[in-house]
Design brief:
This protein has helices at about 10-15, 25-40, 50-65, 105-110, 155-160, 180-185, 220-230, 270-285, 300-320, 320-325, 330-340, 345-365, 405-415, 440-455, and strands at about 45, 75-80, 115-120, 130-135, 135-140, 140, 145-150, 170, 185-190, 210-215, 260, 290-295, 370-375, 390, 395, 415-425, 430-435. The protein starts with 8 loop residues before the first helix and ends in a 10-residue tail after the last helix. By secondary structure, the protein is an alpha+beta fold. It has a single domain (about 5-460), classed as Amidase signature (AS) enzymes (Alpha-Beta Complex), CATH 3.90.1300. The protein has 14 helices and 17 strands. A hairpin with a 5-residue loop joins strand 16 (about 415-425) and strand 17 (about 430-435). The longest helix has 21 residues, at about 345-365.
């Protein structure tokens, strides 16, 4: 019992299916680990362990002959998702007491596939890539509690790295699955839009915000994606899943033939140590017979384009809060909403045109390349007292999201992207490598990521003994 937290999700689910373990044992094991490490990281501030225990007790009778992909595995749920009867705060004092009447679509899909939610993972207030808020406080990085876990899925990443849970869900607009994965030494996938159905609270035709899986290794990530993916009439972007699921893609994988690597797409500076570690990680593909060159699509204009489209989405989703709740909203979020509300038609049209043009550049790149690689984040995990980095390698930044550029420019093109840990800094902090697959190539990308994970061996570093 005391060592169950060390097992991978895939190992645990195999034991559940063989009835060598039972869901209630796992809830209790997670609860014990949470008690031991939560004071150090503050990753799972909302916990409903008694409800999870009741769910675990009745799981076998409810699941009948098919226990689903997860077979009764306890998971953490991001505090942007609704779990019936539990708090959904978004890290905001406005919603500090709000309890959701029903599971949202993401959580309902996970339950139907055998998940048992037991806690909510901490988030920034509404959005951002440093997990702190006035309701639950700051989430700390298990590798160094003085450093950020990233965000917005920072609580999920920290909980996985610390061994509190085996799997967690996350979501991504500008990097919220990939950045905390990089900072915490775990794996996060931004799937193609439509692979994972989203809740009704998001604009139906938006393709910037996606839900996705987080895990300690690639096989566990594929397992979680299988449990989240669904073709549904409730999402206009929804698409069929591969026959047999995403885990099947890991059984017969081939190394890519040609890979493009860039440290920064020529957009702005990155931390030199991050650049060195990531280039070494990317070069491991050459040991598999791959050609790794320095070719990359032209991402010029992508930073301004994303800033406009992100602001437009904020104004759409949260703009109605400003007139009555301005004083209770993080000033960075107020700025982003107001930026969206003040956009001109010309600015929006220009950004849409830039995005379309960028997509076609990237699609043409994949005519000759199988994979695009870059660092996940331009910086290492920064101090928790710092709201966001204000410069990188001496280059001054202007907004609270500028430092996230390596992930948000990939968001624009809709390609699947994984952050895979590839090394440690001299200070012992994880660095993630971002692998970007061709459009719609989620299954292929998972297989390629598995090859590199095996070569790097970094997955053996988590969960952490803290």
């Amino acid at each position: 019992m005391n060592d169950l937290w060390r097992l991978t999700a895939t190992e645990v689910v195999t034991k559940l299916r063989k009835r060598e373990l039972f869901p209630l044992e796992l809830v209790d094991a997670a609860a014990s680990r949470i008690d031991a490490v939560e004071p150090k990281v503050n990753a799972l501030p909302i916990r409903f362990l008694d409800e999870a225990r009741e769910h675990a007790k009745r799981f076998r009778s409810e699941s009948r002959d098919d226990p689903g992909w997860l077979a009764g595995l306890p998971i953490a749920v991001k505090d942007y998702n609704d779990v019936a009867g539990q708090l959904t705060t978004y890290g905001s004092p406005i919603f500090a007491n709000y309890r959701a009447p029903l599971d949202d679509r993401t959580i309902a899909t996970l339950r139907a596939n055998g998940a048992i939610p037991l806690a909510k993972s901490n988030v920034p207030e509404f959005a951002g890539s440093h997990t702190f808020n006035p309701v639950w406080g700051v989430t700390r990085n298990p590798w160094n509690p003085a450093r950020t876990a990233g965000g917005s899925s920072g609580g999920a990443a920290a909980a996985l790295a610390a061994g509190e849970v085996w799997l967690a869900n996350g979501s991504c607009l500008g990097g919220s699955l990939r950045i905390p994965a990089s900072f915490c030494g775990i794996v996060g996938l931004r799937p193609s839009p439509g692979v994972v159905p989203r809740g009704d609270g998001l604009p139906a035709f938006d393709s910037l915000w996606v839900d996705g899986p987080m895990a300690r290794n690639v096989p566990d990530l594929a397992l979680m994606l299988d449990a989240m993916a669904l073709l549904t009439q409730h999402d206009p972007l929804s698409r069929p899943i591969p026959e047999g699921g995403f885990q099947r893609a890991l059984r017969h994988v081939r190394p890519p033939r040609r890979i493009g690597y860039s440290s920064n797409f020529g957009l702005r500076s990155i931390d030199p140590e991050v650049g060195r570690i990531c280039r070494v990680g990317a070069q491991r593909f050459t040991e598999m017979g791959c050609v790794v060159d320095d070719e990359a699509p032209d991402f010029s204009g992508a930073i301004d384009c994303f800033q406009v489209l992100r602001a437009l989405l904020f104004a759409d989703v949260r703009g109605d809060l400003l007139p009555r709740e301005r004083e209770r909203i993080n000033p960075d979020i107020v700025w982003n909403i107001e930026k969206g509300q003040s956009l001109t038609a010309d600015a929006i049209i220009r950004a849409q045109h830039q995005r379309h043009t960028l997509f076609h550049r990237v699609a043409r790149f994949f005519d000759s390349h199988d994979l695009l690689i870059c660092p996940t984040v331009a910086v290492t995990p920064f101090l928790v007292e710092q709201r966001f980095p204000v410069e990188i390698a001496g280059e001054k930044l202007t907004t609270y999201i500028d430092w996230m550029f390596l992930t948000f420019v990939i968001t624009l093109v809709g390609c699947p992207a994984i952050s895979l840990p590839c090394g440690l800094t001299q200070d012992g902090l994880p660095v993630g490598l971002q692998l970007v697959g061709r459009p719609h190539g989620d299954a292929e990308l998972l297989g390629t990521a598995l090859l590199l994970e095996k070569a790097l061996g970094f997955d053996r570093h988590v969960p952490l003994e803290i």
